[in-house]
Amino acid sequence: RVAGTPPPADVTSPTPVTLSTVKTLPPVHPPQQSTVLLGTILVKLTAENGQSHVFRGLLDSGSTCNLITCQAASLLGARRYHSNIQIAGLSQHASNTRGMLSLQVNTLSGQLIAPDQEFHILDKISVNLPRAK
User: Fold this and answer.
1) pLDDT, tens digit, 9 for 90 and up, residues 38-85
2) Which of 20, 30, 50, 57 ranks highest by number of CB atoms within 10 Å?
3) Which domain of life does the UniProt lineage start with (predicted)?
4) Where along the chain do its domains lie?
5) Residue 19 gets which letter from DSSP?
6) Ramachandran quadrant class, 77 (left: phi over 0; alpha: psi -120 to 50; beta: rest)
7) How deeply is 75 buried, as exposed, middle or buried, from its count of CB atoms within 10 A (0-12, 13-18, 19+)?
8) What DSSP element (H or E) covers 71?
9) Are the C-beta atoms of 53 and 73 separated by less than 8 Å?
10) How far, in Å, CA of 87 to CA of 76, rounded?
C-alpha cells in the first residue's frame, strides 16, 4: 500500500495503477570524490615447484590481470618469467612489472580454484590498508 492512500475496500481485487500515480526520482549523480572498499580473501597459492603459501588477496572485480608483490613471489621461490609492462591503477600512477610467474590458486583446504594463473610481479600493489578486528 502506498503511503497516503486509503486502504482498498476489497483486498481481493487489485487496485489499478496508472502512470500518473507513479513519481520518478531525479537521477543520482555520484559525488566528485568517493571511497571504494574492496574485499579481501585468504587463498593458498602454489608455485610450479610445489611450494605453497597462504596470502591475503585483494578482490577487485574491475581488474584485468593478477598481481603479486615481489616479497610474496620470493616466499614461493617460483620461477619468474620476463615481463616488463606498465600497469596503471585508478590514480593513473603507472608501475612497471618485475616479471611474471604462473601459480595455482587454491582454497585454504587445498581445493583448486584456478590452475596456471599468470601473476605480474610488482614492488607494491597498494598502500597500507585499514584493518578491522
Assistant:
1) 788 999 999 999 999 999 988 888 788 899 999 999 999 989 999 988
2) 57
3) Eukaryota
4) 40-122
5) G
6) left
7) middle
8) helix 70-76
9) no
10) 23
Residue 62: exposure state from Cβ atoms within 10 A (0-12, 13-18, ≥19): exposed
For domain 40-122, which architecture applies? Answer: Beta Barrel (2.40)
Query: pLDDT tens across 116-128, in order?
Result: 999 999 988 776 6
DSSP 8-state secondary structure symbol assigned to residue 127 = P
In the sheet that holds 112-122, the strands lie side by side as 52-58, 40-47, 100-106, 112-122, 66-69
| Per-residue pLDDT at 11 | 47
Tracing cell 590481470 back to the chain, one arrives at 65
Cα separation, 103 vs 113, in Å, equals: 11
Q: What's the maximum distance between 2 C-alpha atoms anywhere in the chain?
A: 76
Task: At 124, list the grid cell.
Answer: 607494491
CA distances from 39 to 16, 42, 110, 131 (A): 44, 11, 21, 11
